[in-house]
Amino acid sequence: MCNLKPYHMTKPLSIKNLILGKFTRKRLLQYMIISAGIFFTLFIISLAFYPKSLNYSILTHTISYLGDYTQNPKGWLFFTLSFIELGLSFIPLIIYIHRRVILIERMWGIIGSLLLISGSFGVVLIAFFPDVHGADLFNDMSFGKAHVIVSFITVILFSAGFTVYGILFLVNAYPKLHEGKPDLYPNARTRYVFFAFAVFGLGTLITQIISNIRNYAWPGPGIYSFPLWEWLLSFTFFISIYWLAYTLPNEIPPSE
Asked: CA 119, CA 165: separation in Å to the nearest integer?
């Protein structure tokens, strides 16, 4: 057995340690519970304020409809705050994961982490560019168009980042793929994350291609509903970051 070195066992969680993702196991769990609690509280309040007359449904309404200040005048601010908090709270967790991923392969670990951190800033930008109908941002660029661009780029960044991470953890789990190096994290259940990501990612891609070929009207019927898959994929990203931080060991294996 290799000896594992303890990582910040006694240091309090200072602002610097928080930003750098330097958590003890206890502090990590506290951070995840508090940050998730703040997000869901703000998000649920926004949803509760959405006018009942507009019949909000995950089959017909995208997540960002909650940020439409014209249709959700009482709740849009809570949506905005929830996404700002969510995007920023992801960053320390990604840095925490990053410190462990780079031990598998440094360059690709950095690339994967930068993609995910960029995606986190994309979440913050979505808060400022909600799916507002009929409102111009500048000239002929509407809030709706800006939202689509920002959201699309954010999804691409997260998808690319998780793909890189997924390949790295796959390589790590099979020594033959990793120049005979041992599995650094044999007890971490990382495969579940990437299985879920693959299922919902491919599900989104396939259903929307079929919907486009068949010329289904927005938002798409039943299983082809775009908002439905947006909800599923978005929460898959959320769960993936939290699960990786939770399942990876707090103690970092010594580098060679």
From this structure: 14
